Amino acid sequence: MKDESAKVCESMFLAMHGIKRDRLRKKILNFDKVDDVRDYRGKHCNRPNRIKNENIAQVHTFLDNLPTYESHYSRSQNRYRKYLSSHLTIAMLHRDYQQKYPDNTVS
In whole angstroms, how large is the CA radius of gyration of the chain? Predict the structure, then answer.
């Protein structure tokens, strides 16, 4: 079916694939070009306030070291899901993180 063409309903095709008419039109117009037209939204690396990967890994390490427990009610369904204590808040976790890593600013 590579070299064959088939007529399809445009509105059904768009709805089935969840794309807009303009995107389909752009793909059809650039079909013969060797370089595919890509969507580069969010792919540039000029974010000045981006959080570094080392800082993200440090946050994951901090969260992994917190005491966790399994839920009594959904233990059989969510075997790998762990829960934090109910007395912890986001503010408390943030304060503890800042005390443990004063050099790392994550907000």
Answer: 24
Q: How confident is the model at residue 64 (pLDDT cuts 50, 70, 90)?
A: very high
Task: Show the domain range for 62.
Answer: 53-100
| pTM over the 0.85 mark | no
Please count the structural domains in the chain: 2
How far, in Å, CA of 16 to CA of 32, rounded?
24
- What confidence score (pLDDT) does residue 44 get? 74
Q: Do residues 34 and 61 both lie within one domain?
A: no
95 within domain boundaries: yes
